[in-house]
Amino acid sequence: MTRLVLTADDAGLAAPLSKRIASLLAGGRLSATSVLACAPAFAAAVDALVAAEVTETGVHLCAVGGETPLSPLRSVSTLAPGGRFPGSWPVVAARVATGQVRLAEVEREWEAQIAAVRDAGLLVTHLDSHQHLHLLPRLLPIALSLARRFDVPFVRAPHAGDPAAVGAPVGPAGRLRARLLSLFGAAARRQIADAGLPEPPRILGLAEAGRMTLPRWRSLVSGIPRTGTFEVVLHPGADDPEARNLYPWGYEWEAEARALESDELARLLASRDLEVVSFSRLAVAPDPAGVVPQGVVP
Q1: What is the pLDDT of residues 145-172, one digit of tens each?
Q2: Which helix (H) or strand (E) holds 109?
Q3: How far apart are CA 142 and CA 164, in angstroms?
């Protein structure tokens, strides 16, 4: 049997996007989300999740994208120069690699983000990060330490063997990004095991970020292995001119949401006997081969 965790990243970026994610969760079209605690619509996202009777979420750890940190600015001056995180991941990666960012500031800010989600009354089941920065070698130990401190079972990490792309052509840039993340993820998975945390699901959808439309779902479902547990990284939402101006990534938020809502996708998943599960289910249930994830007592 193959199990899929269908995760919507970026809840909290904008209120319409967050409400659509909550609706998809309530309707069983998604099984997980991860929230940006420092994003403009964090409070709206929490309200939408609570109204939809969603009780668990992940934290989309943030140190990039021009967002404003939760910590007092004087305490994260190297992480957020000028009062905001740098706009792009290469800038953050270079600053971290060259020692321009004090790692204690990253820990302080990410701890504050996790605490904000917990204080909102939501169970934190997994950690991932905006633009995947937690996979950087100097930042991963911080994420793992916080996962253990806050009793968060799962930390996202691609597997070295995860496909670079699963759907219609995405172009060389998308494939290269997914391949690089898989290489970083392979190293991360070894450290996750050393930290005594459960093995995370393998990852699909990285090359298709923001463009996991129905044609790509058809390709994914037709080629997915018959056994194993996979997280499909998704970015559904609603068309919102304000969010599109703030985040000009070209993401097809509405098309991704419509694909998840479609009867065709439901039929595709059923035709392959794919079970959609939550992270809390993974934390207590054996994997399809009957092996309990490392570090978990059912």
Answers
A1: 999 999 999 999 998 887 766 655 666 7
A2: helix 103-119
A3: 27
